[in-house]
C-alpha cells in the first residue's frame, strides 16, 4: 500500500528511513520506558507507528496528525492493523490548542516548508499562538519544522521526551539558533546526533534531537535582539548580498575579439578557478545595454540577430550588471573564499555579490570573511551535494550567524584596513590571507 504514496513537496514531506525511525523509538523509550500517551504530529506513512509497535510496549495510546488525507487514511489503516490504540486526525497539528501538557513522548519528522511558502494568514496564527504560549517572539523566517519543535515541547507533560529528526539548518541558521534557545528555556537537551543525508533524493544532513521537558522553565534564555551589541548576528545584518549578473543564455552576450562591436564590450568575471589569488581579474567580456550602445548605428539589429540565433527575444537584451566589492562562490568544495573585486567589474551569477552595510570598510569585511572563524560557520551551513561538494543557498548565506565586526574599535578597524589594502596590493595568495585573517580575528575578537 505504501508504494502508491508519492511525496507531496508542497506539504514539505520527506520520509524517515525505517532503520532511523526504529533507532529513534528505541532511544526515546530508554529515556521514558513507562510512556503511555504518545504524539506523532506529522505521521506520514505510519513510519513511527511501525517503529513503536516493534518495541512491544503495552497500553500505549498513539495520537497521530497529518494534513494529507492520503497519509491520514494510510496511518489509520496501519494502526488498526497492528492494533495500536489511539486516533489519527486529518487536521493541522499547529492549530490544535487542546493538547498542552498532554503527552509522555512526542516523536516526529516534521514537514519542511520555508516561511515564504506558508500562507500568510496561517503563518500569523501559528506565530501568535506559539509566541503567546511561550512568551517569546517567534522568528518570522522560521521554517515550518521549527514551529513543530516548539509546539511539541508545549504539548509534552513535564519530564516528557521530545525525539525529532530535523534538517541541520536547525543548528546552522539564525532562526534555528533562536528556536534552540527557546527550547532550552523549556526543555533540557539530552543528546543530538548528526545523520548524513538520511532522506531519499534530498542532499542534506539531519539532526536527531532528544529533549526532556523541564518541570519549570528556566528564567534566562539567550535573546537574539537585532542590535549591534550581539556578538553573533546574521550575515544579512553585516552585508547587503545578492546573486550576480544573470544572463538568459551566455552565448549571445559573451564577446569575442573578432566581433564587430567588441570594443564596446565590458569586462566580466565568471570562473573562480582561473584566479591565482583573491583579487578578481576579468576572464571574459560581455555586451551590456547602455547609453553608449544606443548611439552605435546598427548595434540593435546586430544584437537582435545574435539573440534570435539562440532563441531569445529582443527584450531579453537588457542585462543589468551586478557589481560589488566582495564575491563568494556558493558551490563549495575544498577552499571556500571571498574574492575582492578591485576594479568593480560585473560578476556572473556563479557568485553572491556583497557590500558591507553602513560605513564599515569593504576591504576589512573582505579580510575578516576569509578567516577560519567566519568561513567555518559558512561551511557548516552549506548543504551536502555529494562527492565532496556543498552548496549554500542565498537565504542560508544571509542567515549564517557571524561575529559582529561592528563591535571592533576604530583603532582595530584602521589597523585591519591598512593590512587588507597591503594584502590586496601585493596579490597575496589565498592561504596567506586566510592565515593572517584568522590570526587577527583571534587577536581582536578572542575567537
Automatic annotation (TrEMBL):
Keywords: Methyltransferase, Restriction system, S-adenosyl-L-methionine, Transferase. Residues 18-182 form the Type II methyltransferase M.TaqI-like domain. The keyword Transferase applies. One of its GO terms (molecular function) is nucleic acid binding. GO terms for biological process: DNA restriction-modification system; methylation. Its EC number is 2.1.1.72. It is an enzyme of class 2 (transferase). It catalyses: a 2'-deoxyadenosine in DNA + S-adenosyl-L-methionine = an N(6)-methyl-2'-deoxyadenosine in DNA + S-adenosyl-L-homocysteine + H(+). Belongs to the N(4)/N(6)-methyltransferase family. This is site-specific DNA-methyltransferase (adenine-specific). It comes from Acinetobacter beijerinckii ANC 3835.
